[in-house]
Amino acid sequence: MFLRRVTHWAKTFHLCAGVRLTYRVPNMTRPSSDLTQFRKDFAKAKHIAIITGAGVSAESGVPTFRGAGGYWRKWQAQVTHMINVIHFFPLLFAVFLLLCYFPCKQPYLSISLQDLATPGAFSRDPSLVWEFYHYRREVMSSKEPNAAHMSIAECEARLSQQGRSVVVITQNIDELHYRAGSRNILELHGSLFKTRCMSCGEVKANHTSPICPALEGKGAPDPEAKEARIPVNDLPRCERRGCHGLLRPYVVWFGEALDSDILSSVEEELEKCDLCLVVGTSSIVYPAAMFAPQVAARGVPVAEFNTESTPATMRFMYHFEGPCGTILPPALARHESEPI
Ligand SMILES: [Zn+2]
Predict the structure, then answer these.
(1) CA angle 129, 134, 136 (to 5 degrees)
(2) Which parts of the sequence bind substrate (predicted)?
(3) Å from CA of 212 to ligand 1 middle
């Protein structure tokens, strides 16, 4: 697993290197929280790139599977680090096993969600993986875009009438930006509501609920839920004439490279943007974490909007702290210099 992780990071770093942005020594001056000054830069900007992450979705109640309670059955996001460590330290492994045998309420034997979101997991047990993604699709049907999504979409629509552009570069797979009205969106990690055929490769939008009859009522997240064990022929299948291949969620799984066409488009957008916003992302997931610091390194104003400081905060010109749905709308509202 560790080697796979390293390989994955190496891949994403490699892909990131393909973005070919210069990287200079970071500016370590404390970033400004002066909204008036930011608004002056906003009013001048012709091409605005907005990088968004899980924090924006979390404010709509979308589960991130991180932190306390972030389980789907026995799978959890963070335990993987512990498992990586025990590969190398037999003593820790022994302690880990002891902990597992102690009577306790916490599921210490939980497994990383990263082991569920992989091509290997899908080929071993497509029914289980589809249960997980079916659950996530169904959860999304009860969620709505929040004020942060809406302000970004409204800004794009308004500025496009002035010959200015806004692009959303998102790590989120929930389509909430689209539902809010954004149209210029680059989805780095794919979408919960798209499928790819394992046979013919067709990528298709799919908002059907449930995605197939066999998944109806399946995918419950509680640890006691029984696995559906759906026969592979009853899982979502390709509707192309003569194909009938097995469909998979069109999301980037651990161990997979990001789409090269999307990365090329991201490269173009980052090279032409004259203002960059980083919204609700912890700046630790690569390659997205590299994008904004590299834009900042060529002297373009970068503004971070987040509930806390991140490892990249000191590289940026602006940092605004708080819930994105509260702090973003006033930042992106119509500037007095804009025509009505
Ligand atoms: Zn097909």
Answers:
(1) 100
(2) 133, 136
(3) 16
Choosing from 8, 47, 134, 189, which is the catalytic residue?
A: 189
pLDDT digits (tens, 9 = 90+) for 94-123: 444 444 444 433 444 456 777 788 999 999
Q: Which two tokens stand for residue 114?
A: 């990263």
Residue 53: strand, helix, or coil: coil
Q: Are residues 197 and 237 in the same domain?
A: yes
255 in a labelled binding site? no
What's the pLDDT tens digit per position in 168-178? Answer: 999 999 999 99
16 is in an annotated binding site: no
Q: Which residues surround ligand 1, an ion (CB under 5 A)?
A: 197, 199-200, 238, 240, 243, 245
Same domain, 173 and 48: yes
Q: How far is the CA of 59 from the centre of ligand 1 (A)?
A: 36
Q: Is 319 noted as a catalytic residue in this protein?
A: no
Looking at the structure, do residues 315 and 185 belong to the same domain, yes or no?
Answer: yes
Cα separation values, 102 from 105, 110, 224, 233, Å: 10, 15, 20, 42
163 lies in the same domain as 173: yes
Q: Which domain holds residue 219?
A: 63-140+192-251
Q: What pTM value is reported for the model?
A: 0.82
